[in-house]
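Two records follow; treat each independently.
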Amino acid sequence: MNKQEEIKNALKLVFASKHIDAVLKHFSSAIEKYQVQDWEGVCLKGGKFVEAVTKLLMVYCGKPLPATRSFSAGKELRSLEQLNSVGFNDTVRIVIPRGGIFIYEIVNNRGRHDADEIDANEMDARLLIPAMSWVLGELLRFSTKGTDPLTSMELIDSISNKTYPLFEDIEGRTYLNRNGIEPGNIALLILYFRYPKRTQRQELVDMVIRHGVKASTANVAVHRLKPYIDENDQGWKLRLTGKIKAEEIIKRIKN
C-alpha cells in the first residue's frame, strides 16, 4: 500500500470518501505541476484543492452543499466559524478553514500582479505547496486522533517533506533533478520541459551528456526519439505522443 492509500484510509476514519478522493487528486496534481514548473497550474489546482476541502468539511459538519453555481469556498469556510464551539472541534471550525482561506486568497489574487514584476505565479506556487501540505496534515491529525501517534506522524511527514521541481534551467541549459533516469527519458523530458520552444538536435545531445551520459549513448538515445518529435530547421519539438509518454514518465518518477 502506497502512502496516498494510507492517507486516504486514515482520512476515511472521519471524512466522506467522495471528497477525500477529490482532495488527494488535486493535491497530487498540484505536486505534479510544481515538479514541471507549471506555476499557473499549481495555482489552479490549489483552488480546486481548497474547494474539495471545503466540501469535505461542510459534509462532516452536516451543512448542505449549495448548487455549483452559487458555491463559494471562501464564503463557506468563513461560515464554519459560526458553528457551535461545543459541537464542533476548533480544528474543523477555525484552524483548517483559515488555512484554506489563506490559499484561496493567494489563488484569487493570481491575475492581479503587475506584468513588470518577477514571475508572481512562481512565488505563489512556492508558497501554495507547503500551505496545502499543512492543511492536509491538519486533516490527517484530526482524523487519526486516538490512533497510533507514530504512524500518524509518519503519514504527516510524508506529505510535509520539501517538494523540489523536477527540472532546472541554468542559462538555457536544462537539467533533471533526479538520478537514475535512462538517457532516452532524459532527452524526452528535456524536450517536454522546453515545449513549445524548439531544440536543436546537437543541443539536446549535449544536455543529455551533462547528466553523466557518454556521448555515443546520448546520440543513440536522442536518435530513438524521432517517432515522438516534429523537426524543422529551427530544431525539434515534441508531438502529442511524446508529451503523453513524458507525462507517464513523470508520474512514475513521482511515485
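The next record belongs to a different protein.
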Amino acid sequence: MTTGIVLAGGQSRRYGSPKAFADYEGRLFWERAHKALLEGGCSGVVVSARPEHAGRFGDADVITDLPEFADAGPLAGICSAMKLRPADGFAVMPCDMPGIGPMEVRKLITLADPDADVTAVRTKNQPIPLFSVWSGELAGRIGEALARGERGVMPFLASLETEWIDARELNPDLSVFRNVNTPNEQ
C-alpha cells in the first residue's frame, strides 16, 4: 500500500502568498498534486499543511507537523505524515510542481526500487528529491535526524540507500518537472 503525501506546508516567501492555493490552469496547486497522487496509484493521500491553512483543503485528509517537528521543513512534513498515517510506502510530491500528473506518479511508483529507502527523480542537471517514493520504515530515522537539527533533504538522502531515476523515464518533456517559485513562473 502506497500513501501519497502532498507537501503543502511551505512558507512561500518568494511566491508572496501560499502556493498551495495558487491557480494553475483552473485548479489549485494542491488539488493538482492530490489528484495526480490519487489517480497515479496511491491508496490514499494526505496533505501536509501549515496549521493556519489546515482548514482550507476541503474534504482532503490534512495533517500538520507533529509539535516536535513544527516548522522544520519538508522532512518534518514527511515524517509527521508517516507517523500519523503509517503505510508500507509513501509517494511524496510538492504542491508547487503542477505539471506532474497521474502518469508520472504511476511510472515513479512502478519504477521505485523496493530495496531502496528512497527512490527519487533527477534530470541530467538537477535532483528533484521531493518527487519520490519513500519506505514506510523511515519515520524513526527522519525523526532522529530532525532531533539532531538536520533539516536538509539532500544530505538526509545521502545518508540512505537512495536510488535516482532519470526524469525522462517518467516523461521526456522535462518541463512537467518544473518547480514554480514565483507567480511569474506559471
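Discussion point: The chain has five helices and nine strands. How would you locate this feature using only the C-alpha cell line?
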